Write the structure tokens for this entry.
Amino acid sequence: MTRIPEEDRDIIENEIYLPMVLTILNRDLHVFGQSPFKLKRPYLDLVEETMKIVQTDLKKTRLYLRKENIKVSEIKRDEAFTMYLFMYKGYEEHHNYFNPRLRNKVEELMAYYLFKRFHSHSN
């Protein structure tokens, strides 16, 4: 049973997911830079601007975690699961994440940051 409220757990999970999103976007930026696109600047700009937004959200996440005395660290990884230790206001909790779930969530966040965030504001 977790002591962590859902709102805080969502913020804690941003500390897991957003660095992964940045890693992938950074790798994609390199691929676009090396690619034979005739006009690659729009792709590079899109990825760079997206990275700035993700970095801003990650900074907000980290400020909140520091203010609330919450720490997150990866403690074990194998081919199927990644285990994280959440230090939440004096309590330790271990949480196992299924690696395909991590990948799917990162993919979902990438879609949000790359294009869905533009549509969610107009609704």
Notes: The first helix runs from residue 6 to 34. The chain has three helices and three strands.
